[in-house]
Amino acid sequence: MADVMIAVMPFHGHVAPLVAVAEAFLAAGHRVRVYTGAAHADRFTAIGARVVTWASAPDFDEHDLPATFPALRGKKGPRQMLTNVEQLFVRTGAGQATDLTRAYAEQPWDVIVADGLSIGAHFASELTATPWVTVSIVPLTIPSRDLPPPILGLQPAKGLAGRLRDRALRGMTRMVSSGIQRAYAEERTRAGLPLDDLALEQAFMSPQLVCASGVAELEYPRSDLATQVVFVGELTRPRANDAALPSWWPDVESCRDPILHVTQGTLNVDPHDLIEPSFTALGRQRVLLIASTGRSDVAELPFTAPPNARVAGFIPYDSLLPRLDVMITNGGWGGVLAALAQGIPLIVAGGDLDKPEIAARVAWAGAGVNLRTGRPRPRAILDAWRRVTSDGSYRANAQRLAKSLSAHDGPREVVDHTMALLARA
C-alpha cells in the first residue's frame, strides 16, 4: 500500500481525468490525498480521497479568471495563452509548493502524481526528495528537434526548408516566452530552490515517468521522444451516471437524421465563438444539432436556436456519444479522445491554449477537419461538415484510433506504471 498525493490544477477539464486516476489508486488499495481548488473538493471526497485545498496558492474560479488574475482581462488568442501560462501555471508554483510541503510535513507521501500543468508538484518533489509522476492530460509539449514548437498548432514540416522553418520557430518561441522563463526562475527562488537550466516545457514533465493520455498514433513521429513517456489511452471514459437527461431527449431517441454535437468545452465558453456559427451553418440542414454550453447552471443561449437544435448545460456522454455522427468541438483533449474512442470524426475549431495543437493532430491523423481558428465562419463549418460526411476516410481513421484507444485502461495503467517506478526506487 502506498501513500499517494495527487496534484490537480483546479479546472473542470483537469479534474475529471484525475478523479478517474484517484479512483484507480483507491481501488488498488492505496491511500490517496488530492491537492486542488476548493470548488472541486467534493468531486474527490465523494470517491473517498482526502483533499488539501489551495491556500498559499491563490485559489480561483475558472469561470472568472480575471477576478484573481487581472492581467488576463480582455486577452484572447496567443496573448491569452502566454499570460495564462505565466499567471496561472507558473506564478502560482511557489504557493503550490508551500501548500504541498506543508501537507507532506503533516503526513509524508511515497509519490506525488500530478497533472502535467502543476509546476508546484515539480517543486514539491524536489523539496521533499520524493518521486514525481506526470499525468499529461493534453498532448505532449516536450520539445523536440524534429518538430515545430508545441502549442503553435503546426504539423511537422518536410524537407530541408521545413526543418529550417521549425528550427527558426523554436528560436523565436524561446524569445517570445523569455518572460515566462524568467517567471519560472523567480518561482524557484521563492520556493527556496536553486536555479536550473530546464526549458519551461521540460520543467512541467517528470524526468522519472510521464503517463501521456492518448495513443502514439496521435503523436507526431520524433526521434528523441523521452524514454520515460508511456501512452495510456483515455483517462475518462463515458459511463452511466446520475446526471439527468434533458427534457428534449426523446427527440434524440426518435431522430432518423444525422446527429451532430457542438461543444465549446468548459473554459472559454462564449457561445458566439462556435455554437452560433454552427447554428447558422447547419440550422437548415437535415441534421439534429445538440449544443452544450459548458456550464451546468446555464442551459440557454443569448441568441435564438434554429428548429433543428437542442441546448443543455451538460449532456451525459455515455448516452450522447453512441448516437453521434460528427462532433464539432473547440478541441478540448478529453472530449476529442472521447469522440475518437467511439469512432466519431471531428470538426475542430481550436482557438487558444492547447487547442490549435489538438486540432492540428486530429487533422494529421486524418480523423477530422482543422478549422484553424476558434471563431470560424459559418461557411467554413458547412464546408467542413460536407467534407467529413462525404469522405469516408475521416470515419475510417477515427475508427482506427478507436481500436487503438480501446486497448488501454488509462487510470489502471497510471497506477501500474507508478507502482513499477516505486519498486525501482
Automatic annotation (TrEMBL):
UniProt-recorded name of the protein: UDP:flavonoid glycosyltransferase YjiC, YdhE family
One Pfam family recorded for the sequence: EryCIII-like_C
Domain Erythromycin biosynthesis protein CIII-like C-terminal: 288-421
Organism from which the protein derives: Agromyces cerinus subsp. cerinus
GO function terms (MF aspect): hexosyltransferase activity; UDP-glycosyltransferase activity
Signal peptide: none
GO terms classed as biological process: antibiotic biosynthetic process
Entry keywords, A to Z: Transferase
InterPro entries with a match to the protein in the record: EryCIII-like_C (IPR010610), Glycosyltransferase_28 (IPR050426), UDP_glucos_trans (IPR002213)
Domain of life from the UniProt record: Bacteria
PANTHER family reported in the protein's UniProt record: STEROL 3-BETA-GLUCOSYLTRANSFERASE (PTHR48050), STEROL 3-BETA-GLUCOSYLTRANSFERASE UGT80A2 (PTHR48050:SF13)
